[in-house]
Amino acid sequence: MKTKLLTSAILLAVTSTAAHAVSINMRHEWTPEFEGNDQVHKDRIAVSHRFANGVGFEVEAKYKSGDGFFDFDQFVDAGNQANISYKMKLGNGFDLTPQYKIENDSSSHNHQLNLTLGYKINDDWSTSFRHRYNYKLKNGEYDSHYNRWTVGLGYKGIEDWSLSGSTDYTFKEEGDESWKGNKNGFTEINFKAEYKWGNGWSPFAEFGVTPEKKEGSSEKDTWKPRYRVGMKYSF
């Protein structure tokens, strides 16, 4: 209920005070059948805005296929999230963005604290480093937490195109696995290409990999592919 009220309040603020400055991001994700695991389709829609004073926020709703197959009548709610952040210009191409995010689904509640340092190298290149702390409250189970570092690199030197890549390195608590039985390790590698179509429309595509267990394996020792396509509209 609290999340619904927060979402409604943010959307009202967007439509009433930030006209012509809103971004809507619609994305479809497909994870193919892999090592005995069913394929999965996921969809999400996010609405975001950042004011001239540096304050920004985003709300997001997510869905996925309930039985692992692309069947619209089997899609189920996969949770929602809302975040608020503040982007500070530090000078000499640097900026710093603290963010608080809350994410909920049917089985857990996540509280995230993110701190991102961005650096604009020149008009074409930029890079970033983010530290994330995530605390998960699971219904009827023990709570858990992790820390994660994300390094990103972006390039805009091709007319109307932007290319980017990022990688995550996760530090999990004792007993949880990131890679090959270790609690620390790389947990995602992702590449993205976006095209500025005009009139506020920007289609994009992503390819990424995440750790997965081979069929019959007791630990995550291989990389599972993931594909995403989407459309961003800004007005």
Automatic annotation (TrEMBL):
Example GO molecular function: porin activity
SUPFAM superfamilies listed in its UniProt record: Porins (SSF56935)
Signal peptide positions on this chain: 1-21
Record bears the keyword Signal: yes
Cellular-component GO terms for this entry: cell outer membrane
Sections of the chain in a coiled coil: none
InterPro entries documented for this protein: Bact_OM_Channel_sf, Oligogalacturonate-sp_porin
Recorded superkingdom: Bacteria
Keyword annotations: Signal
Cited Pfam families: KdgM
Gene3D superfamilies: monomeric porin ompg
Protein name (record): Oligogalacturonate-specific porin
